[in-house]
Amino acid sequence: MTTADAVTDVPGIRVGHARVPGERALSGTTVVLAPEGGAVAGVDVRGGGPGTRETDALDPRNLVERVDAVVLTGGSAYGLDAASGVMAWLEEQGRGFPLGPGVVPVVPGACLFDLGRGGDWRARPDASTGRAAVEAAARTGVGAVVEEGNVGAGTGAVAGGMKGGVGTASVTTASGAVVGALAVVNAVGSPVDPLTGVLYGEYGGRERPAYPDSELHATAQRRLAEARAANTRPQLNTTIAVVATDAVLTRPQAQKLAGTSHDGLARAVRPVHLMHDGDTVFTLATCTGTAPDPLALNEILAAGADALARAVAKAVRAARTVEGQGGTFLAYRDLYDLPDLS
Fold first, then answer.
1. In the chain, which ranges are E strands?
2. Alpha-carbon distance 340 to 334, whole Å?
3. DSSP codes of every residue in 16-81
4. pLDDT tens for residues 56-79?
5. Structure confidence by residue, pLDDT tens digits, 23-55
6. 3-state SS assignment for residue 199
7. Above 80 in pLDDT, residue 299?
């Protein structure tokens, strides 16, 4: 079966991106839209400095059973305003927690720090950005290819001093469950092994990593160090992600999947989960597949970590160099002279 190698391989999951307009803007929002009827959701926050909304609603002890969308956004805490635009759109569609004559959409989300990276500190996502992203998601077809790199919430993302971005990947387990991940990689830690130049997330992946020539690697490290030294604006951090599956999961199982998926983040970026990180992973279970037995559940938990590690690596590979008033952020593909496969 042909797949997009994306979170959209999970039937019913759609992804939309929107960018903040303006020459000095370098930020945006990504929305992961669940199918009609919503998805069982979980979350695990490991970073010491998170910016989130509605995460308490996902606690299995609490009332909300399903959510309709997850918002990943730039703009630091200001950017969480994007979720209000998603809420408004969902309400118009009649989607949300039913209360009396209407609904109240529960829209969890998380933000990353990219303020000023385009040169304008106030250029950040708002409700209109969120609406544009969810409308873009709704327009996509089933199993659509997801744009990666400098898009949506990854527009201004930076990872280890180099350009970060959005990446996505999927895994099908031996029992037939589909598990997909979408990551927005914006980390103070590095996604690159300093000894080899290989992306950490490619170790143990589907193929043996291609090791860069040692001279090329040395040159790349020098250029990156020079660019880091020249970028004097704050380089704060956070990697945020959504892991989705078609398996029938309970809310505690969805919460567990969010936790084990963090293992993939720890493989792909070093270090992570520090006091100034906001690393957060959401999970969505569409429950359109089968309920796993204990062994099959273990496969799903492991697949979440594998998919997330690959999604991080794909985000960094897809990113493009940015040069502007907010700084110069060199991309991995340019540092290591990778061919442009777009």
1. 14-19, 28-33, 40-45, 52-53, 69-73, 97-99, 102-104, 109-111, 158-159, 162-163, 165-172, 178-185, 240-245, 280-285, 322-324, 327-329
2. 9
3. EEEE--STT---EEEEEEPPTT-BEEEEEE-SSS--EES-GGGSTTSS---BSEEEEESSGGGGGG
4. 999 999 998 999 999 999 999 999
5. 999 999 999 999 999 999 999 999 999 999 999
6. strand
7. yes
Phi and psi angles of residue 303, each rounded to the nearest 5 degrees, phi first: -65, -35
Closest CA to 40 of 253, 227, 265: 253
Per this entry, what is the length of the chain? 342
Least confident range of 104-113, 204-213, 230-239, 326-335: 230-239
Percentage of the chain surpassing pLDDT 90?
Answer: 87
Mean pLDDT of the chain: 94
What tokens does 229 get? 């030294």
Per the structure block, which two tokens stand in for 224? 């990156």
Identify the H or E element spanning 316. helix 294-318
User: What is the rounded average pLDDT of the residues 132-139?
Assistant: 98
User: Is the distance from CB of 332 to CB of 315 less than 8 angstroms?
Assistant: no
The DSSP code for 1 is -
Residues sharing a CB contact under 8 Å with residue 167, sequence separation 6 or more, in sequence order: 148, 149, 182, 183, 185, 310, 311, 312, 313, 314, 315, 316, 317, 318
Distance CA 55, CA 41 (A): 10
Tell me, what amino acid is at 325? Q
Q: How confident is the model at residue 2 (pLDDT cuts 50, 70, 90)?
A: low
CB 129 within 8 Å of CB 28 = yes
Record the tokens describing residue 255, joined without a space. Answer: 């919460």
